[in-house]
Input
Amino acid sequence: MKIEGTYTIKAPRELVWNLMIDPEVLSRCVPGVQSLENTEANAYKLVLKTGVGAIKGVYNGAIRLEDMREPEHYKMIVDGKGGAGFVKGVGELDLTEEDEDTLVTYAGDVSVGGTIASVGQRMILSTAKMMTSQFFTALEAEAAAIIKAEESGEPVVTPKQGFFRNTFRAVKRKIKS
Output
């Protein structure tokens, strides 16, 4: 199954890059993460609680970043297993400067199996798009907090994350554009 899209983040590319490889930030921004830790350079293990339709589960997995060209590109390899099945994927992320913003372009192939695959590709894609939107909305809030702190000279106040907060941020962003 193919997943692809773009998202514009109102922040400089170097900042977006640094946020996208920081395990603490990722643990706050990736929906459903229960734990995320570095296992070695550019490799992480994670526990993720998520669901597609009525099928929900906890997944243990690994993420590896390869072909890293800071601050513009990396390849991500994902492998996860849980009671409801497995997920394997390979994707590419490209960060492009657009004035003061960063355009993130992503594309990948994902395979799912087990009970979770029974809900169908359309439902899985819909869930993946929702989770991707929540992730980028949360990441943009992290970037905005850092930019605000730099401009004001105050310490960074880590934004509160969560499904409803990020849904509200996404709706507010759509209304503004």
In short: The chain has one domain: 2-176. The beta strands are 2-9, 33-40, 43-52, 55-69, 73-82, 85-98, 101-113. The first strand starts at residue 2 and ends at 9.
